[in-house]
Amino acid sequence: MHTGSASALLDRLLATAPAPAWWLVLVTAAAALILVGYRPLWRLTRAAVTVVHEGGHALVALLTGRRLHAITLHTDTSGLTVSSGKPTGLGMILTAAAGYPAPAALGLGYAALLGTGRVTLMLWATLLMLAAVLIKVRNVYGLLTVAVLGALVFGVSWFGTDLLQAGFAYLAAWFLLAAAVRPVVELQRGRRRQPGRTDSDADQLARLTHLPALLWVLFFTVLCLAALVVGGALLLAPVEQLHPLLQR
Q1: Residues paired with 81 in a beta bridge
Q2: Residue 131 has what pLDDT?
Q3: Would you say residue 225 has pLDDT above 70?
Q4: Which residues pair with 82 in a beta bridge?
Q5: Which H helix or E strand runs over 247?
């Protein structure tokens, strides 16, 4: 790549978009709540949360020196990340704990980028993350899921208008922040319905740390709610600045 092309690409990535219209921030927030709260839609959109959840396991596994083997995504929106290394210790604990907070952490990161107007950087960073996950996916459904998400993000980032890109970016951030909470609720609900089930992340962490699984569920809940509050404040900042009624 020529120096000029590289410079132009960097300039495009780091370009700042103007503050979005206040109505766009609120509409995308409402749309995200519908995608999370309306069960028929949640059955579809939860697949995106699973991709982030398993990506969180995979990233922390690599950061803690474990060897990442495979990521599998299932049609029931569950997933599995397989890594090898020491079966106990801090690395394994962090890897097991990374899944449920991952959507909240990513949503918070998106909110921080959007707060500085880095819409393009957020979209392209998403493409890189999806490509990294795609490399390790080992089943057909998982490959299709990640590929469809990648095609959607690429289409918006490459062909979409500025308004479409901003709307998609804010919707993605709101969705991840809101959607992070529901799987934790479903986790505890499933544990209550099947008391003998021991394959959840919380139960695995209970065996690794000798702390109650419920404590880990509460830990996930606090992290996800905190990210929702902080990320929501970042995303709503333009509303306070731009809405005429709030300027009085």
Answers
A1: 71
A2: 97
A3: yes
A4: 70
A5: none
Q: Which residues make beta-bridge pairs with 137?
A: 71
DSSP class of 137: B
pLDDT tens per residue across span 196-218? 666 899 999 999 999 999 999 99
Q: Can you list the alpha helix ranges (DSSP code H) found in the chain?
A: 3-14, 22-37, 39-63, 90-97, 101-115, 119-136, 140-159, 162-179, 181-193, 201-209, 213-242
Could you give the count of Cα atoms lying within 13 Å of 161 in the half-sphere of its Cβ?
A: 2
| Secondary structure element (H or E) that encloses residue 116, with its range | none
Say how far apart CA 54 and CA 67 lie, in whole Å: 15
Any idea what the Cα angle at residue 37 is, between residues 183 and 221, rounded to 5°?
Answer: 35
How buried is 176 (Cβ within 10 angstroms: 0-12 exposed, 13-18 middle, 19+ buried)? Answer: buried
Prediction pTM value: 0.91
What the block records as the tokens of 42 is: 């949640």
8 Å CB contact between 78 and 145? no
Residues 217 and 101: beta-carbon distance below 8 Å: no
Query: Do 144 and 48 meet the contact criterion of CB atoms below 8 Å apart?
Result: no
The whole-number average pLDDT for the span 82-108 is: 96
10 Å CB burial of residue 235 (0-12, 13-18, 19+) is buried
**Residue 176 structure tokens:** 């991840």
Is the CB of residue 58 less than 8 Å from the CB of residue 72? no
pLDDT at 50: 97
